[in-house]
């Protein structure tokens, strides 16, 4: 089980502190934020990231920008900017030798048959522009409110295969989606994504909103996924809202995989 964590979610902006925590918990990687790199490049300077990687043996993944960014925007200038920002994020991911770049698939604010078609075309153009990236792009499931564009596991799977991409499955997002839909969406994602799934985001919640709780809290019972987690060959990133919660989650998941959780 290749575990890592997201410093940004844990409220840790200091790069050295993030790598120290990863080392102390025997984690395999940290997930850097392209949004943070845009906002304050000095906090995640690529040369310093590579140096810390060499000294610690801790790898890196990158969550590509999503703040004020919409790859499915119906506004041409906004979509062009979103593509340009994403390409810069992929270049940052390449510079820090990231294992993957996690990508949100966009927002849709006008539900109408004509607008639906235009949004589909806009997102297709955006994803086509990312073709040939030197870092694997992992599309993330995101059905947290009515404006998130893709609404089902089937839609995410279809888009992933259409553009020959990979996937990041966020267990917390899928749990909220399952609760709203009244069906086991998490299991459906696992079934449909299967061979395209290379990265996970793990955290917990109570099925209503994105709380980013430690994995032993909330209403996701990770013991139900013990076999999957034990055999998953990709990277597993903890998106937990506190440094202490990261430590609790690491201990919890390792116990679960051993059958002691």
TrEMBL record:
GO-annotated molecular function: DNA binding; isomerase activity; zinc ion binding
Segments forming domain Xylose isomerase-like TIM barrel: 19-255
Pfam family, one: AP_endonuc_2
Keywords noted in UniProt: Isomerase
Keyword Zinc part of the UniProt annotation: no
Superkingdom in the source lineage: Bacteria
Gene Ontology biological process terms, A to Z: DNA repair
Gene3D superfamilies membership: Divalent-metal-dependent TIM barrel enzymes (3.20.20.150)
PANTHER family tied to this protein: HYDROXYPYRUVATE ISOMERASE (PTHR12110), XYLOSE ISOMERASE-LIKE TIM BARREL DOMAIN-CONTAINING PROTEIN (PTHR12110:SF21)
Record's protein name: Xylose isomerase domain protein TIM barrel
Organism listed in the record: Truepera radiovictrix (strain DSM 17093 / CIP 108686 / LMG 22925 / RQ-24)
């Amino acid at each position: 089980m290749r575990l890592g964590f997201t410093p940004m979610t844990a409220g840790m902006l200091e790069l050295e502190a993030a790598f120290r925590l990863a080392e102390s918990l025997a984690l395999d990687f940290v997930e850097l934020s392209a949004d943070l790199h845009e906002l304050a490049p000095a906090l995640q300077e690529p040369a310093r990231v590579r140096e810390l990687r060499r000294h610690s043996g801790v790898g890196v993944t990158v969550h590509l920008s999503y703040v004020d960014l919409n790859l499915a925007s119906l506004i041409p200038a906004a979509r062009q900017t979103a593509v340009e920002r994403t390409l810069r994020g992929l270049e940052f991911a390449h510079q820090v030798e990231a294992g993957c770049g996690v990508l949100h698939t966009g927002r849709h604010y006008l539900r109408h048959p004509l607008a639906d078609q235009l949004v589909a075309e806009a997102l297709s153009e955006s994803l086509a522009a990312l073709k040939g990236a030197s870092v694997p792009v992992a599309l993330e499931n995101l059905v947290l409110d009515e404006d998130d564009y893709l609404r089902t596991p089937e839609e995410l799977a279809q888009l992933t295969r259409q553009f020959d991409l990979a996937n990041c499955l966020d267990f917390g997002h899928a749990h909220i989606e399952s609760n709203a839909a009244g069906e086991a969406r998490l299991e459906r994602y696992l079934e449909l994504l299967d061979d395209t799934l290379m990265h996970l985001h793990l955290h917990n919640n109570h099925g209503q909103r994105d709380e980013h709780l430690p994995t032993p809290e909330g209403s996701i019972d990770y013991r139900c996924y013990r076999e999957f987690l034990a055999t998953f060959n990709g990277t597993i990133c903890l998106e937990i809202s506190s440094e202490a919660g990261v430590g609790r989650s690491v201990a919890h998941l390792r116990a679960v995989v051993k059958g002691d959780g």
